[in-house]
């Protein structure tokens, strides 16, 4: 287990490089510096508080600078960017990465693969973000695909990164649908960019991936959503793993990293739109896509190792064993909250109070100026982002959101993007990509055709309408 770190017993110090400097800039003349090698995924925006945002804001470097001013010991920080968690794990096995962030399935594979070697053995020390229902992973198909349910993929080729969080959701979903991967569905092991190209070229009939790939492809009109991972109603999460030997040798680094992650978490929760801008600029993703997941009602950004998330990791193990060579792993022993507790204490925060308080994403707030009512219900509230505005406008309900868009069109204002929670599962989604149902004067958005179908079976008076028609028909 990792040794708890306290600034009161700090025996080493760190020097750091100027914020925003490249590795070449920071390592020059620092042969005597202690290296910190961090593996992250710039486009996996659920890990941004331990990766893209953390790096861009320079929080780790600032924390290390505080230590350097106390003792003068030098540090060189190297950030390595990857598409998935698998290569990060390979580098940790080789003892070439010290700290890494990745999804739930990759973290478990990481623990399984590294545990045989004391030098590479890892532990989970924090969570970056999670969704309690599983909406971070999704299956998409081409826009013209006739498929409306997972069952329609039987006998088809599906792209996924084997061992990734997106693959885990696919395996679970196919199992629930009674379809065997490998027989009922052929899974092609492809990195997200390769799979995206394969989907666009027609080489595969579907793609199952983690954030932000499904949202990106749908936003670009290159795909439509077939399966929302929230249907599984199983938590999906991303987190941070560290090499235990490295943490034992340099506990002050782990402490600085976790305190920096707390800084990034606070920033993304209080300044979500600005955080989305920063992440978009650094990752190359459209800001509208980043904000879909990182904005109010999206990912729950919370560092604590909640018991329900640990239980979810345990429940993942049987599925990992079903898809490949997975050595038994003591999940309880793999999770160590001592360093994070120490970081909370150092920041004057109460870990126990936080971990026992129900977690939730930030919520849409403010008064809806169109309907004239406060946006208080997270199951209904959405946002409209006008092209000429620097902040989003709250919408108290889906119907109010449509009214806001209708009014904007009448005034000649362009809508950059609009977001609304799915009426069944609560998943935050693009309003113009949702499947809309009109039931009387009420309009309801759904992420998938299947979800809309489930509603209509119970409410036969409803009817599916296009987004544009919903905007036209909504009463002001």
UniProtKB/TrEMBL annotation:
Alphabetical list of InterPro entries matching this protein: SsuA/THI5
SUPFAM superfamilies the record matches: Periplasmic binding protein-like II
Pfam families: NMT1
Keyword Signal recorded: yes
Keyword flag Cell membrane: no
Region forming the signal peptide: 1-23
Residue ranges annotated for the SsuA/THI5-like domain, each copy included: 123-275
Keywords: Signal
Domain of life of the source: Bacteria
Designated name of the protein: ABC transporter substrate-binding protein
Organism of provenance: Rhodococcus oxybenzonivorans
């Amino acid at each position: 287990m990792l040794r708890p770190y306290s600034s009161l017993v700090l025996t080493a110090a760190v020097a750091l490089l100027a914020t925003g400097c490249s590795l070449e800039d920071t390592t020059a003349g620092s042969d005597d510096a202690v290296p910190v090698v961090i593996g992250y995924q710039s486009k996996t925006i659920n890990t941004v508080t331990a990766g893209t945002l953390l790096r861009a804001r320079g929080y780790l470097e600032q924390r290390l600078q505080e230590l350097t001013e106390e003792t003068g010991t030098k540090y060189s920080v190297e950030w390595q960017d990857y598409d998935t968690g698998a290569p990060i794990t390979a580098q940790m096995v080789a003892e070439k990465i010290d700290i890494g962030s990745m999804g739930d399935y990759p973290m478990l594979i990481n623990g399984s693969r590294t545990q045989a070697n004391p030098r590479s053995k890892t532990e989970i020390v924090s969570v970056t973000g999670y969704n309690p229902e599983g909406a971070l992973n999704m299956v998409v198909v081409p826009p013209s695909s006739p498929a409306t349910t997972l069952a329609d993929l039987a006998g088809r080729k599906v792209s996924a990164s084997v061992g990734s969080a997106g693959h885990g959701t696919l395996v679970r979903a196919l199992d629930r649908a009674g379809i065997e991967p490998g027989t009922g569905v052929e899974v092609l092991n492809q990195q997200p960019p390769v799979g995206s190209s394969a989907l666009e070229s027609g080489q595969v009939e579907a793609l199952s991936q983690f954030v932000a790939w499904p949202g990106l492809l749908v936003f670009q009109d290159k795909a439509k959503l077939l399966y929302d991972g929230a249907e599984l109603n199983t938590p999906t999460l991303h987190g941070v793993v560290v090499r235990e030997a490295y943490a034992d040798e340099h506990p002050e680094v782990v402490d600085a990293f976790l305190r920096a992650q707390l800084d990034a978490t606070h920033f993304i929760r209080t300044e979500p739109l600005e955080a989305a801008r920063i992440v978009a600029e650094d990752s190359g993703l459209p800001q509208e896509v980043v904000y879909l997941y990182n904005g109010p009602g999206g990912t729950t950004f919370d560092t604590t190792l909640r018991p329900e998330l640990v239980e979810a990791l345990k429940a993942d193990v049987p599925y990992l064993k079903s898809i490949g060579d997975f050595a038994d792993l003591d999940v309880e022993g793999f999770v160590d909250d001592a360093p994070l507790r120490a970081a909370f204490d150092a920041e004057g925060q109460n870990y126990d109070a936080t971990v026992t308080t129900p977690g939730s994403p930030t919520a849409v707030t403010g008064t809806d100026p169109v309907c004239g009512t406060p946006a208080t219900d997270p199951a209904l509230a959405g946002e409209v982002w006008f092209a000429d505005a620097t902040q989003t406008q709250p919408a108290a309900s889906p119907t109010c959101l449509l009214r806001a868009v209708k009014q904007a069109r009448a005034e000649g204002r362009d809508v950059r993007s609009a977001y609304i929670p799915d009426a069944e599962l609560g998943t935050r989604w693009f309003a113009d990509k949702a499947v809309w149902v009109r039931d009387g004067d009420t309009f309801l958005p759904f992420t998938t055709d299947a979800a809309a179908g489930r509603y209509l079976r119970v409410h036969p008076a409803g009817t599916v309408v296009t987004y544009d028609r919903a905007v036209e028909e909504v009463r002001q």
